TrEMBL record:
The keyword Hydrolase applies. Pfam families: Inhibitor_I9 (PF05922), Peptidase_S8 (PF00082). Transmembrane segments: none annotated. The lineage of its organism: Bacteria, Bacillati, Actinomycetota, Actinomycetes, Kitasatosporales. It comes from Streptomyces carpinensis. PROSITE patterns: SUBTILASE, SUBTILASE_ASP. Residues 131-337 form the Peptidase S8/S53 domain. This is S8 family serine peptidase.
């Protein structure tokens, strides 16, 4: 997998306040989102790309990802000598080695008190309407679009109206695992990120069982997507049928799936690289999600970790970031310190 390369000194799009001569501010006003198609944003993005390309050329490296919306930086294949050269540049904030992260999980509406009398669901006209007009960006192992938790219309027959201010897209799969109908209005974005593994060709050679799309082989991403935003009153199936009907935390929310974790063949875990995760965060911010869900491991100490910096920028732009704290104790092992 790639070394993720460097974080540079300029602010990303969602936090840029207009300090560069001739470049207007792109930070969205409170309660607003960025528009990646606007002229101001495009000009500033070009400026960030130019800065990054100069740094890449200076050390003779090849850029893999360019991050601009929630993080000013790039990932690249770097030899130790090149990493040292990059660290010495005056505009370089940090150079971080790529690391693997793995799935983590917890749940339930009862634990959060959502279903209590007078609870949040009651305040939002019941679970049949809670989450309406919100988009949850789930960065995980993908989603299984055929699940009834993502049906449109939902179980009650209520359809999801088209969005007009969301910029997400759904990528079709070269292996036939994702087609146009899989983004059905409940699922509104479906992207996959695998450059750290060598792209689709690398995944195919290392994990031939995996889908070359946002379709979920592992199941963890489907679980977290349905837990966060699955339709209301869906009959559980298989071994989980003993639970009866199941409902997501925000059942009328839409799901934007960003697959950055790739599964073991036996489905025991899924893992991904920081460089792919930051690319997924950057895309989710550009698309205009309202929430990012990240039930995945992460650093316990490094406040300059690229994912943490990206999450902080997303939060500053008004996106609610929900990241897991870990599956073990004590308190000193809590992951994602940017949420402390």
């Amino acid at each position: 997998m790639q070394d993720p390369g460097g974080e540079l000194a300029l602010a990303p799009v969602v936090t840029y306040g207009g300090d560069e001569p001739g470049l207007a501010a792109t930070k969205p006003a409170r309660g607003k989102k960025i528009n990646p198609k606007s002229a101001h944003v495009k000009r500033y993005v070009d400026h960030l790309h130019d800065q990054q390309q100069r740094a890449v050329r200076a050390v003779g490296a090849k850029k893999v990802y360019s991050y601009v919306y929630s993080f000013d930086g790039f990932s690249a294949d770097l030899a130790a000598r090149q990493a040292a050269q990059l660290r010495a540049m005056p505009d370089a904030v940090a150079v971080t080695e790529d690391r693997k992260v793995t799935t983590q999980t917890s749940s339930t509406s009862a634990f959060l008190g959502l279903d209590k009398p007078g609870g949040l669901w009651d305040q939002l006209a019941g679970p049949e309407d809670a989450g309406e007009d919100l988009v949850i960006g789930v960065i995980d192992s993908g989603v299984w679009p055929d699940s009834q938790s993502f049906a449109n219309p939902d179980v009650s027959g209520k359809a999801y109206a088209p969005f007009t201010d969301f910029h997400g897209t759904c990528d079709l799969a070269t292996d036939g695992s994702w087609d146009e109908g899989d983004c059905n209005g409940k699922i509104v974005a479906a992207r996959h990120f695998d450059e750290a593994w060598g792209g689709d060709a690398g995944i195919k050679s290392q994990m031939p069982w995996e889908f070359l799309s946002a379709r979920d082989y592992n199941g963890h991403g489907t679980h977290t997507s349905s837990t966060s935003g699955g339709d209301h009153g869906v009959a559980a199936t298989g071994p989980t049928s003993i639970f009866g009907a199941i409902t997501g935390m925000a059942p009328r929310a839409r799901i934007a799936s960003y697959k950055a974790l790739w599964s073991a063949k036996d489905g025991s875990t899924a893992s991904g690289a920081d460089s792919d995760v930051v690319a997924a965060i950057d895309q989710a911010v550009a698309d205009g999600v309202d929430v990012i869900n990240f039930s995945v491991s992460g650093t316990t100490t490094d406040l300059l970790d690229p994912s943490e910096v990206s999450f902080l920028a997303a939060a500053e732009a008004g996106i609610f970031v929900s990241a897991s704290a870990g599956n073990s104790g004590p308190a000193t092992t809590v992951a994602h310190p940017s949420h402390g």
